[in-house]
Amino acid sequence: MSEPELYKAIGGKKLEKYIAYLPGVGEAMDSHVFEAKARADAELVEHRFQGHARVFTKKAKLDRYLVLDDSRGLDAAMSIEFGRKESRDPETGEVLITEMEGLFILHKAMGLARPDKRRGKVDVDPDVVKEKWRRR
Predict the structure, then answer these.
(1) Integer CA distances (angstroms), 20 to 32, 63, 64, 101, 133, in order
(2) 92: which residues sit within 8 A by CB, 6+ positions away?
(3) Which among 41, 102, 107, 123 counts the fewest CB atoms within 10 Å?
């Protein structure tokens, strides 16, 4: 079967969109994301440092999202999920940001495998972190 045949439209819609609008699909997605949020909340509580990060769900027309948000804290959601590298002051060599392993909260909650370790941890700009701490 050639690729164009595989993605033929059904009733004027692509196959994925057709399936998304079938009865019960939205409710199943809501249920799946609700359960994943409960798992993510439990995981986040175990690792809470200052308590600013939170997990919430967002519902679009067809899609459902599970979101890790740290906008109330240091905007560190990406570091919480994937980890971060150590960052030192280039002049003094002082450690400004300690290295941290990622918690992969969303990955675990959704039953996904961790990303390839070759991808690496997030590089954090020390100046951005200093500015966040100043504003607190």
Answers:
(1) 14, 9, 11, 36, 44
(2) none
(3) 123
pLDDT tens by residue, 18-32: 888 889 999 999 999
Q: Which domain holds residue 9?
A: 3-127
Per the model's pLDDT, the better-predicted residue between 16 and 42 turns out to be 42
Please indicate, yes or no, if residue 136 is contained in any of the structural domains: no
**Considering its fold, how many domains does the chain have in total?**
1
Are the C-beta atoms of 72 and 79 separated by less than 8 Å? Answer: no
Q: pTM for the whole thing? A: 0.72
